[in-house]
């Protein structure tokens, strides 16, 4: 499969390579496995208040963003001292998803040690610093939550100590042990880096060389239909675990400080060990049914202040079901849209298109609720 011709360079933002947004500089902080210690959370809260817009923004890859950053050099200094930038050369490629509840609640195996090992191994290979910023690793503890997030390379635990190797979310039929999970994922990234041409993602290249490389460390069986559970639901779980959601994935600095050690999930939620104040923990809360891009004034391409419109929608909705049911976008790029089924709500400048149907802003809540 020939790699696509790219008309622009990979501009995925980081901390050293920031993005110039309409509201100022945007910095994205990678959190392998979504893990954030209480000390690191405190540093980020201070940085958000003193250097940014006062909030920490969650992403769909379990990372965090600071917006309107006024002093990028000072931000680098603070994050480095907090241990959030352990490998500057590899900063943009430390994209590792893992099952957020692993080692805390359920799952076949605790993948947290594998996340740490993968991060160290990835950063130790100089050639992998050139991976595209969109390339995504995943380690699934067997429940099938992050395995469905379309990672380029993923190891999903199976009963008996083995795991399935997935490429772009599909089972290759290759089985490797937990001991070999990290080496095989790193080797696949190296193969991709050699063969990718101008490709950014695994689905854009011939998978043959990657599968062949994996078979040197594993065995082949017929591909199987593996478990897929989707996002971890918001609420209080057993073992004292709480899953909470900030509205629209935006967490004010003052709300972040008292949370303690936490895990950021790919669904813009947080896994905590204590009940939080000011965050959604009720799985029936209508706010869980609506997500939105940053919109105006943060994005120059947006045709509307979509978060203000989304808040107005929430005041009128009575959706009883958990999970994202609608996503409001300021333009056709649909930034931050969820992977699952949802209403596609796109600003036009004169209202919105709801799954392609023109709707005035005043009738947006009525139209969205009528389509649930």
Automatic annotation (TrEMBL):
Residues 24-78 form the Nitrite/Sulfite reductase ferredoxin-like domain. InterPro entries: NIR_SIR_4Fe-4S, NiRdtase/SiRdtase_haem-b_fer, Nit/Sulf_reduc_fer-like_dom_sf, NO2/SO3_Rdtase_4Fe4S_sf. Transmembrane segments: none annotated. It comes from the Bacteria. Keywords: 4Fe-4S, Heme, Iron, Iron-sulfur, Metal-binding, Oxidoreductase. This is Precorrin-3B synthase. It comes from Prauserella endophytica.
